[in-house]
Request: fold
Amino acid sequence: MNFRKRLVIVLIKTMYDNLVRTNMNIIQKPCADVNYAKGRQNYAIKALVVHIAQGTLAGTDSWFAQPRPDKPTSAHYIVGKNGEVHQYVPDSDEAYHAGVIDYSTCASWITAQNPNLVTLGIENEGYLGERWTEPQMASLCALVGQLCAKYGIPQDIEHIVSHSAITSYKENMDDWIAEILRRKKLAYLQSWLDSLKQMLANLLKGRSNQKLSTT
Reply:
């Protein structure tokens, strides 16, 4: 394998490692059993749905913890304004967060009649019209990146969607998603530059050591 191919392979591997490396502290807040369904009926996770909680972090924790057999609702995660991430439902189970299809711009991944079977739901603390806080957006981007890497979900507007993309009268989170994707591009560029710097530093160090060994 020539030098150019080895350089490209190492750069790609380093960029990937830098992009998916995270030590997120995800706090488990189990949802009431009746508010979600065990398993996914053999469906694979295809996309992420971004929501606004219309409430506080503590209030959402309390809401999902209360059994609601008549109208069960849940989500897999919530990201707080302080950057905390709570998990209510295991990824392997179906949360009740986006089950009603009114119209869809993301039909390529809806292989089930119920979108809940093929999605992960991410709530965000706050109310419609509020802007995210910086800790909140940073954690949301990290969570999205981690989940996309884990499940092979493309990081694009077709697979990271607002609730309104599935149910038209639900919250529109397009500005949040645009910010996630904007930061992803910046992170990719920064990772590429960092990887290139690291590669050049290693090359220079290797040449320096080689010179010392021949003198």
Notes: The chain has four helices and eight strands.
